[in-house]
């Protein structure tokens, strides 16, 4: 408690005020996004034709993820030219407008709240494939807000590491608390109002978040180096302020697209041509894909096809969010004992096998019994806990392994290149496998009227294969054979050419004797609070 009190006293009165407003806004934002995500997934699963519901659902979620990249590219030039809080508020107001658009279209074509007596949804007559358009537009706005909110913490405290660490850790905890609460609340809203109107609170919370963020001061700590670093980490190194005219903005967006494409290309070569780097592909991209597939597809199908109540998918997602919170806290509390990502990744891989419970549950669960949704949430909780702990730790390892190397490229950063490639890989997997495996669920359910067989393949078999692949990948780094290695090898790219095979020298990080015990490091010199900061940088 004395340490927390000391940290709190280190902030100025203005910084405390700005942190309070920022946390208030971020909680409203997360609460609103959980309402929208739960509702749009339930609406899509319900309105898409029964024969192709989950094929289209998988394609729509993949398209939404791709649109987030577009949103980041579109908003990047603005944060170089305008106050961050203003751009952040603009982004969330635009997001509120996009979510309102769907409500207006449904109401204008005859839609109503769920009938209180029959409990039947009252959808409008709009073409159901418009969901692809609405979800894509919302994904663009989502990408805008997610990029901006990574920059503003450094604005608030001026990039001072000893202040950023506890601030980001605190924001992360409140963010997950709001996410868990929003998921559970949206389940009740879907059940009561219907999936076409259950997110009517989303524009309200988004608008409230934007208003709260406008109370953040026009910050004097705004530094181009901080913003440049955040853009580099997203593969947008070329974006720069070339003027505020329309033509200038279009040119900057074009440079952003070019920069992201080049980052993906360079990142792919960095990963595939460095033998000790390739293990990041299954440990990061595959694990992220499985996490999203679990929440978006498996949770939705279990609630719809087994429990016959789409609202209860959010109970399962709420359990997942609670698991993520526990994972982040576990990394925080055990940072001195678990200093590398490998133990967390191995726990994550083993926890994936809990998905085998879903086909078993599908044969014995009683439709309409909410206790089975709670049991499914309890199974998902350790999976998400392992994923979150591994993601927090692994993101820090990627950052430390690359930012401390001698890599040099005239246009892109090593960290931005690798993260862009890993995220692009995740998007491709999510779009292709999500749609293909959704089709498997559709075909099996249409044939047998039960998702049991589909769960055996797209659930148990897929996740067990991934378990083996991720486990094997954790033994690739130097020093990884130990159960809980203290350090693992870092790639030292010591040549100007990033892809030259002769630059694959490996070394173990050395302890800096100048560091005090309080500053002892974990993976590659990155402390836990930095891992939490990196997690908020690359999270959903």
Automatic annotation (TrEMBL):
Main location: membrane
Keyword hit for Cell membrane: yes
Membrane protein topology class: Multi-pass membrane protein
Keyword Transport: no
Region (Disordered): 501-522
TM spans (from-to): 21-45, 57-79, 86-105, 125-148, 196-216, 277-294, 314-335, 347-366, 372-398, 410-432, 452-476
Compartments reported by the entry: Cell membrane
Recorded GO CC terms: plasma membrane
Gene3D superfamilies cross-referenced by the UniProt entry: MFS general substrate transporter like domains
Xref: SUPFAM superfamilies: MFS general substrate transporter
InterPro entries: MFS, MFS_trans_sf
Keywords: Cell membrane, Membrane, Transmembrane, Transmembrane helix
Name of a matching Pfam family: MFS_1
One term of GO molecular function: transmembrane transporter activity
Protein name per Swiss-Prot or TrEMBL: MFS general substrate transporter
